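Hi R.,

Here's the chain you asked about this morning:
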Amino acid sequence: MPNAFYSFEFMKDYVPEFFNGYFELNYHGKQLAKYITSGARSDGLLNISADDFFSIILPTPVKREEQQKTSDCLSSLDEVINLQTQKLDTLKAHKKGLMQQLFPQEVD
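And here is the predicted structure, written out as tokens:
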């Protein structure tokens, strides 16, 4: 049986978190789309050669420190977005409560 899955481990010169954005945006998938073929049995599995897979390009700073700084910056922005989303949800709930107090619905 051929290998269906590959697993990867980053080399010491790379910060794994740096690559999260690429995978979240499917950056690799957009490059691989031109190589993917469907199996003969039409079983929903997608086939791609190892050579094609390893031909994708993920622009990466050479220095590990720069990768780390970029990763830290993006993680910090994610935290700010999450906190602002929570704040917005809380304010919406508060508004809803105020609206229900100001305009109570009559029950028949």
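One quick note: The first helix runs from residue 20 to 24.

Cheers,
M.
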